[in-house]
Design brief:
- Helix 1 runs antiparallel to helix 2, helix 1 runs parallel beside helix 3 and helix 2 runs antiparallel to helix 3.
- It contains 3 helices and no strands.
- Helices cover 88% and strands 0% of the residues.
- With 109 residues, it is mainly alpha-helical.
- The longest helix has 39 residues.
- The chain has a single domain, classed as Methane Monooxygenase Hydroxylase, Chain G, domain 1 (Up-down Bundle), CATH 1.20.58.
- The model has no long low-confidence stretch (mean pLDDT 91).
- This is Cytoplasmic dynein 2 heavy chain 1-like.
- It comes from Notothenia coriiceps (black rockcod).
Length: 109
């Protein structure tokens, strides 16, 4: 019963993190085509940046719970490693988005 509860708790964290990352990647993948769109993209980027500190503790909590699950049950949830890779890609997309915005500004100015 406790192991099932622990697994469900980890799944809840991973679903919230995955949703945030997927939605953010979709927003960041759009290339602005005007100064107005650059402004909108900058605002959305700032919203994502503001939510990141809320999501990171969930990641840490899921990893801690997964370590506990692994220690107690002999195996953890494999989905965390793929989610970590997705998070790392998200971090790179955030950096490249900022560079792309900086490159776009002179084009429309």
């Amino acid at each position: 019963m406790l192991l099932s509860s622990l697994r469900k708790s980890i799944q809840g964290h991973t679903q919230a993190i995955d949703s945030f990352v997927s939605e953010s990647m979709e927003v960041l993948s759009n290339r602005p085509e005007s100064m107005e769109e650059i402004g909108v993209a900058g605002g959305r980027y700032n919203q994502i940046l503001a939510r990141k500190p809320e999501i990171l503790p969930q990641f840490q909590c899921a990893e801690e719970k997964n370590r506990l699950l692994r220690a107690v049950a002999g195996g953890g949830m494999d989905s965390l490693s793929s989610l970590r890779a997705k998070w790392d890609k998200f971090e790179l997309v955030m950096e490249s988005h900022q560079l792309m915005i900086k490159d776009q500004i002179p084009v429309f100015a």
